[in-house]
Design a protein that fits this description.
Number of strands of chain B: 1
Number of strands of chain A: 20
Structural class of chain B: mainly alpha
InterPro entries (chain A): FecR (IPR006860), FecR_C (IPR032508), Ferrdict_sens_TM (IPR012373)
Pfam families (chain B): Sigma70_r2, Sigma70_r4
Oligomer: heterodimer
Helix content of chain B: 55-70%
CATH class of the largest domain in chain A: Mainly Beta
Shape of chain A: elongated
Number of domains of chain B: 2
CATH class of the largest domain in chain B: Mainly Alpha
Radius of gyration of chain A: 29 Å
Keywords (chain A): Membrane, Transmembrane, Transmembrane helix
Largest sheet of chain B: none
Distance between the termini of chain A: 47 Å
Radius of gyration of chain B: 20 Å
Order of helices and strands of chain B: HHHHEHHHH
Protein name (chain A): FecR family protein
GO molecular function, one term (chain A): sigma factor antagonist activity
């Protein structure tokens, strides 16, 4: 124990055991100080002052805390990562992670059903297979605008009107499987050990990570896959266990014909709007007004972003947004202009920061 | 106010947690998320980044639950992990906003008396308050952990990964600042008497 006989008020204030006595009132500190005070009446005044001061010290914090929603979503993410992957290393959804994604892949799939298929026909094997998984979510877009769906692994889907996406709350250990009827654009978080599969009625498209778009309406006679960047493999569902898959490279388009169950591959003439060279050129901004950036995003992704044009439209931004998925792009923009962004019910809204 | 020493209830939950109990795990997440976030945010003022750090620390905690020694306080263990992670990850997160050695620890101290105190104590209080609020970052951090989180100097030195001696040295510096002000204060006190 320190020799407190020559302590002044300010010495007591920085003394750990004194602070413990004043603030925490532990039994041993009370024992000690009560006794010590009796033995050293000459220090009573100093101690009384120091006691008053130490007991009065408070800490004012600026208003910063995690909201209940944030804690909830954090807990969900933790639950997901501690149940599913346990000790396996995993891609962190940091800003940088997206830049490290080596193969950015953009895929556009459009697939369809026969017009003359009876509505209530029994489901196919794959449809049954996915429905076995528990905790399935279904996002349905009955509006006339594209809708954003965020998946548990950080991937993102932009669901077009009239489309339905079925996906598990938590992907299983081996692969990430979603099921689509209609059209959607995906940006998939890179994860080599867990391939991402988009299943439509007739074909399955497999990617190892990144972004792509799928269209598969139940009343078209063809399926279409076009790749913007990266590489995918497409196979017919009836061949899923055989090795008959077709590989697609950027700017290649694959058409699946229902009537003769065949694939046809062709080269596209102009690069797709979200292919690497295009996006690198389009999404590098130097002192560009926000309105222009938003417009480009809306064009490229075919979505609508709600924001206050008067308030933010003329704000200038310098940024390179080429290697991020759409929701990350929007978040970065918000950070730059000190605004909040949210994705309620599949919309994108940028608004004034909540305090 | 909770104390830094792990209560028997927490000790029980801690043992449950180490045996893989998810309810105990959830308890720690809910109890400490905000204090960890608040602490981290003083060091590096980036909401998303600090949130991410807190999350990763909890995941790491789970993954290492079998290898963590029977610690007497889960609290300082969490604080230490968050601090370490912030310093390690911040340079990767934003190269334009490096975490300086002399980071600001953004917090304001106040001294509020519940009882009516004499003039002398009032004067001293306001003086001490202004000294506390002019301390450099690391010393503010020590005082924050001591007075806001009720961690003792032993725990604080573990969290900040400095020796207990360094905690004292840092406070000694604060004390020197204090001394200067103190003599000034005494001068004011004695001035009317001398006249």
């Amino acid at each position: 124990m320190n020799d407190y006989t020559n302590y002044e008020v300010n010495d007591f204030i920085y003394d750990d055991f004194f602070i413990t006595w004043v603030r925490e009132r532990t039994p041993e500190s009370i024992d000690f100080w009560d006794k010590w005070l009796l033995e050293h009446p000459e220090q009573q005044k100093n101690i009384a002052i120091a006691f008053n001061i130490v007991s009065g010290i408070t800490v004012n914090l600026p208003k910063t805390k995690l909201s209940n929603e944030e804690i909830a979503s954090m807990s969900a993410e933790i639950a997901l990562r501690t149940s599913e992957l346990q000790n396996k290393p995993r891609l962190k959804i940091y800003k940088q992670s997206w830049t490290k994604v080596a193969a950015i892949l953009l895929l556009f799939i459009s697939a369809g059903l026969w017009v003359y298929i009876v509505k209530n026909e029994t489901t196919t094997g794959i449809y049954q297979q996915i429905s076995i998984e528990k905790n399935l979510n279904q996002a349905e877009n009955n509006s006339n605008k594209p809708k954003i769906v965020r998946l548990s692994d950080g991937s993102l889907a932009i669901l077009q009107p009239g489309s339905t996406l079925t996906f598990p709350n938590v992907f299983n250990d081996k692969q990430r499987v979603v099921q689509l009827s209609g059209e959607a654009f995906f940006e998939i978080a890179h994860n080599k050990s867990k391939p991402f599969l988009v299943q439509t009625k007739e074909i399955t498209t497999k990617v190892l990570g990144t972004s792509f778009s799928v269209e598969a309406f139940d009343d078209d006679e063809y399926a279409k896959v076009s790749v913007t960047t990266g590489r995918v493999s497409v196979s017919m569902n009836k061949d899923i266990n055989q090795q008959k898959s077709v590989f697609l490279l950027p700017n290649e388009e694959l058409t699946f014909q229902q009537h003769n169950t065949s694939f046809k591959k062709k080269q596209l003439h102009s690069p797709l709007p979200l292919s690497t060279p295009v996006i690198e050129k389009t999404f590098s901004f130097h002192n560009a007004p926000l309105a222009e950036i938003i417009e480009k995003l809306e064009m490229a992704y075919g979505v609508e972003i709600q924001y206050d044009k008067h308030m933010y439209g003329n704000m200038k931004i310098t940024a390179s947004l080429s290697d991020r998925p759409l929701d990350e792009k929007v978040k970065l923009i918000c950070k730059a202009i000190n605004a909040d962004c949210s994705f309620p019910d599949g919309m994108i809204i940028i608004e004034k920061e909540h305090q | 106010m909770e104390t830094s020493r792990t209560t028997s209830k927490e000790m029980e939950l801690w043992n449950l947690f180490r045996n893989g109990d998810k309810t105990a795990y959830a308890y720690f997440i809910h109890t400490y998320s905000n204090s960890l976030f608040n602490y981290g945010y003083r060091i590096y003022t980036d909401h998303d980044f600090v949130k991410d750090c807190v999350q990763e620390v909890f995941i790491e905690l789970w993954n290492r639950r079998n290898s963590i020694n029977g610690t007497n306080s889960i609290k300082w263990y969490l604080f230490k992990s968050v601090r370490l992670r912030i310093f390690r990850e911040a340079p990767k997160w934003n190269k334009n906003l490096p975490l300086e050695e002399d980071y600001q620890f953004a917090v304001e101290f106040n001294i509020e008396h519940q009882l009516i105190v004499d003039l002398e104590t009032q004067e001293l209080s306001s003086r001490i308050k202004s000294v506390l609020n002019r301390l450099p970052g690391r010393q503010r951090e020590i005082m924050y952990l001591r007075f806001y989180e009720n961690l003792n100097f032993d725990e604080i030195s573990t969290i900040m990964q400095i020796s207990k001696q360094s905690v004292h040295n840092l406070l000694q510096k604060a004390y020197h600042n204090f001394r200067k002000d103190w003599s000034y204060l005494l001068a004011i006190y004695f001035l009317p008497i001398q006249q």
